[in-house]
Amino acid sequence: MLRSRVCEAIGIRYPVFQGGMAWVSDGRLAAAVSNAGGLGIISAMNADENYVRDQIRLCRELTDAPFGVNIMLMSPHVEAVAKLAAEEKVPVVTTGAGLPGKYMPAWIEAGIKVVPVVPSVAIARRVERSGATAVIAEGTESGGHVGELTTMALVPQVVDAVKIPVLAAGGIADGRGMAAAFMLGAEGVQCGTRFLSAFECGIHPNYKKKVLDARDIDTQVTGRRLGHPVRALRNPFVNKFAELERDPAVSDEELSAFGTGAVRKAAVDGNLQEGSFLAGQIAALVKKEQSAKEIVEEMVAECEALLGKAGERVL
Ligand code: TUI
User: Fold this and answer.
1) Is residue 315 over pLDDT 70?
2) Which of 120, 144, 250, 257 gets the highest tally of CB atoms within 10 A of its CB?
3) Is the CB of 231 under 6 A from ligand 1?
4) CA distance 305 to 291
5) Residue 298 CA to ligand 1 centre (angstroms)
6) What number is the average pLDDT over the span 138-153?
7) Residue 119 C-alpha to ligand 1 middle, in angstroms?
8) What are the residue boundaries of the structural domains of the chain, listed by start?
9) pLDDT-based confidence at 257, cuts 50/70/90?
10) Best of 72, 102, 145 to mutate for ligand 1, by most ligand atoms within 8 A of CB?
């Protein structure tokens, strides 16, 4: 059976994390993935501590297995949510979009396993020194807020730079991607886009349909000018944002205001014109709705089969 140091450290059956996706990863999806043997993760996104507390309670009602909370470090509520995570003693905290250093002592003191998402070797080294249990090396193929390096280039460099286990993220949606990540030295994977099609994922049907219909070339990164590049499926919102971003007459404040609320409009309202449908470059590989359990088991079985045949494949 496919096991790694990640399974031992976190107490999970399979080394598969479900990414913390804003307006997508709620307590119900997280519980479904954790019940399937992976690590379900609740997204704290820009929400306040009351929302996050409700999702933690919901998740705890639905599963006894470990789960995580993803803390988006650019959130206006980051201080309160970081404190809540420690009070609730959630099993795992993952972080994104920044450096988690100042919060880590309190989380570690509370017995929480901290697994930051990192876009570079330098940041991986820093969080290891701060006491991270593992790191998620996320390539630019992923959806949402992205770094510069690809998964293929980033993962082996992070693996060489740290002693803690590395999970790979960005562009992984099936057992082939998972096996490839293991070949690069990763000991686990985090998938976001693949779980958008889970039955237990409560996003608007328009969002699921956009993912199921996506082609390889259908995502685009915008927001570089603001220092927050974000990958989403191309639509009128993305086209307009890109146009405003190129226009020197549009201020950064105006550009930022144009984007406010767009992720919610996609996930909750299914607004095809004004929503920002965050998804990774691998969206075209997501072909049908399935349960979280089917997704996790299918990925792991395919990965195991491929790794078993790895010797044959290179002959
Ligand atoms: O965080 C993500 N993905 C996200 S967060 C998000 S919400 C958002 N919406 C609009 C603008 C910005 C955020 C949607 N998707 N992935 C993890 C991730 N973390 N990717 C890259 C990073 C990262 C970047 C810089 C981690 C650390 C870091 O540190 C450098 C620094 O200077 O802070």
Assistant:
1) no
2) 144
3) no
4) 21
5) 29
6) 97
7) 9
8) 5-202+284-313, 205-281
9) very high
10) 145
